[in-house]
Amino acid sequence: MCGIVGYIGKRNAVPILLYGLQRLEYRGYDSAGIAVLEKEGTKIIVEKQVGKIKDLHEYLWNKKIEGNVGIAHTRWATHGPPTIENAHPHLSQRGTIAIVHNGIIENYLELKESLEKKGFRFSSETDTEVIAHLIEDEYEKDLLNTVLKVTKKLEGAYALGIISTYEPDKLIGVRKGSPLIVGVGKDENLIASDIPAVLEYTKDIIPLDDNEIAVLTAKDVKLLDFQGKQKEKKILHVTWDISIAEKSGFKHFMQKEIHEQPRTIADTITGFSSQDIEKIFSKLKDISRITVVACGTSFHAGLVGKFWIEKYAKIPVEVDYASEFRYRDYIVDDKTLIFGISQSGETADTRFAMLDAKKKGAKTLALVNVVGSSLSRESDFVLYTYCGPEIGVAATKTFTAQLVVLYLFALKLAEYRGLISEKEFDQKYRNLLHLPTVVESILKEEKEIKNIAYNYTKADDFLFLARGLNYPIALEGALKLKEISYIHAEGYPAGEMKHGPIALIDENMPVVFIAPKDSLYEKTLSNIQEVKARKGKIISIATKGDKVVKDLSDETIYIPKTKDELYPIVSIVPLQLLSYHIATFLGKDVDQPRNLAKTVTVE
Ligand code: M6R
CA 130 to CA 107: how far, in whole Å? Predict the structure, then answer.
C-alpha cells in the first residue's frame, strides 16, 4: 500500500504535493519523493528521500524547486527494499516520463526482460519502473493514447500518476484495482489515493472506478474508460472533517482495517505466487520437522497453520510461544525449519528465538507484513502478507492474511514433496479466490453484530469455544476482546470444557461458539447443549441456514458456507467486529488500548 498525489494548476506544486503526502502517510512511510515539471516544461526534476515525509520536507527546504505540474509518492515497500533508488517517482530512460504507482504489476519481469532487450536500463528493483520505460518506448505524438496502449500490457493492480515533457500541460491518473480520486478545483486539479490529500484545496471529488483514466489540465478534467471512450461522472461534494477522513470515514483504524480484509486477502492470495517460490520450496522440501515461533495473534495463526501443514505436507509441526521457546533446551538440526510469524517483523521475542535457532543450525523462514523488517532480513527465507500498514494495535487484517499464506505454504510444500499435484494446488488456490466475497458478505452484517455487542457490554467474563481448525480462532476471538475492551475472556478447545471451565458457566457467562458445519459439527453441537443445560448465554457463529444451532443459541451470527478447511479465515471476522463494537460501546481507546504497543521490541 502506497500513497500517491498529483497537482496541475497555477500554483507551485511542491508545497501542495508535500501537504498531500502528509495526509497519506498512514498508507506507507518507508520513503517518499516528488517529480515536478520545470516551468518551461522541458525537464522533470525528481527528488526522493528514505524515511518519512518530514525527512523529504526538510531535505527540500532549501532547494527552491518550482513548477506547476507534479506528482508525489509515499512508499510502503513491496518490490525492493526502501532505498532512494526504489523510491518513487520513477523516470523513464530519457527522462521524458515520470510515474508514481500504488499496487503491484504482476508481469513486470516479463515486461522488463523485453525492454532490456531493446536497450532499456533499469535503475531500481521495483515493478513500477517498467511502466515509465514502456510509455517512453511506445510514445507516438499522443500521451493519452500511449497510456491506453500501455495499460493493455499491464497485469495486476495499479493506480498511476503520470507526467511528461512530451505534453507538459497534462497530468494523467489511471486506476485499476488500487484507489484513486480526482480533486476538482478552480484553475487547478489534483489526483490522490485518498480524499484527505486534496481536502485543503477542494472538496469536489470524483472517485475513479476500476479501468478508468483521468486526463487533467489546469482548467479541465476528462474521464475515459480503457477503450478511450469518454465518460461523464458526477462530482461529489464532501463535507468531511480532516481527522475523520484520515480513517476514510471509519471511526477507528481498527474498524477500517477489519473492512479492508476483502482486499488484503485478495492481495495476499495474488502476492503469494509473485514471491521467490522456487528458491524457498526447493530448499525446504526435505525438512523433517517445523517449529512455529510467534507471539499473540501471530501465534494463533501458527496454530491453524499446524493443521494445514501436517494434513498436506505431512511434516510434524510444533507451535511455540517465541518467548518460551528460546529459554528451553529445544532440539534442532539442519533438517528443522523454524518458522517465525510476525506482522511487524520486529517483535523481540520472535527475532531472538529465530536468531538463536539459526545459530544452532536450523533453517529459518519468516512470514512478515513489513517489508525490510529485521526478521525478514535476518531469516534464510521470507514470505509476505500484502496488507499495507496496520495501524490499529489489535491485529485484524494481518491475521487473515497470515492464514492465507500458511494455507498456501502447506499446499506448496506438499506439491514440492510430491504429495499433491500442480493441478490439485491450482484447484485449491482457486478455491481461495471466493474468500474476499465471503468476507464482504460478513461485513455487511455489521449492524446486526453491533446490536448483539450492545447486549454484552456489562459482561465481566467471556468464554470462546471451538474444535479442530477453529479452536485457534476461539483463542484469537478471546484475545481481541481482552485487548480492546479489557473484559476478561478465555479461549478453549470445546471438548476440553468438561475438564474444568464448565464450572464457570452460569446465566451470567456469555459463551461464544464457533460452530460451522464442518466435520466436527456434531461434537460442537453437544458442547453447545452442555452450556445451554447450565443456562450459559450462547452466541454462535454458524453456517448460513443452520436452524439447529440458531434454536439452541441466544444470538446467532451466520457466515456463508465455505470449504471446511477455510472456515478459520472467515469465522474470525464476526469476532473482530463483536469485540470492536463491545469496546466502542464501553468507550475504550480501540486503536491504542492501554498498556499495549503495536510492535513489542522488548523481551
Ligand atoms: O508483530 P507481531 O505479529 O510479531 O506481534 C505479535 C503480537 O505482539 C501481536 O499479535 C499482539 O498480540 C496484537 N496486539 C494482537 O492483536
Answer: 10
Residues with Cβ within 6 A of ligand 1? 295-298, 342-344, 347, 350, 393-395, 483, 596, 599-600
Q: What pLDDT, on the 0 to 100 scale, is given for residue 274?
A: 84
Rounded to whole angstroms, the Cα distance separating 196 from 557 reads: 35
Q: What pLDDT, on a 0 to 100 scale, did the predictor assign at position 372?
A: 63
Burial (CB < 10 A; 0-12, 13-18, 19+), residue 55, is middle
Q: Which among 314, 303, 300 is positioned nearest to 343, based on CA atoms?
A: 300
- What's the pTM value of the predicted model, to 2 decimals? 0.70
> 205 to each of 103, 158, 239, 241, 269, how far by Cα in Å?
22, 20, 11, 15, 32
Determine what percent of the chain falls in helix, strand and coil, rounding each to the nearest 5: 40, 25, 35
pLDDT, averaged per 10 consecutive residues of the chain (603 residues), comes to 90 95 75 92 93 88 91 82 89 96 89 94 92 96 96 92 97 88 96 87 89 96 96 84 66 94 94 90 97 98 98 98 94 97 90 95 94 81 89 94 98 98 96 96 97 96 97 98 97 94 94 97 96 96 97 97 97 98 96 78 64
3-state secondary structure 321-339: EHHHHCCCCCCCCCCEEEE
Ligand 1 pocket test, candidate residues 600, 601, 603, most atoms within 8 A of CB: 600
Catalytic (active site) residue 517: no
* Catalytic-residue membership of 279: no
Name which residue sits closest to atom 7 of ligand 1, judged by CA: 296
> Domains, the chain, ranges and CATH?
3-239 (3.60.20.10), 244-433 (3.40.50.10490), 446-603 (3.40.50.10490)
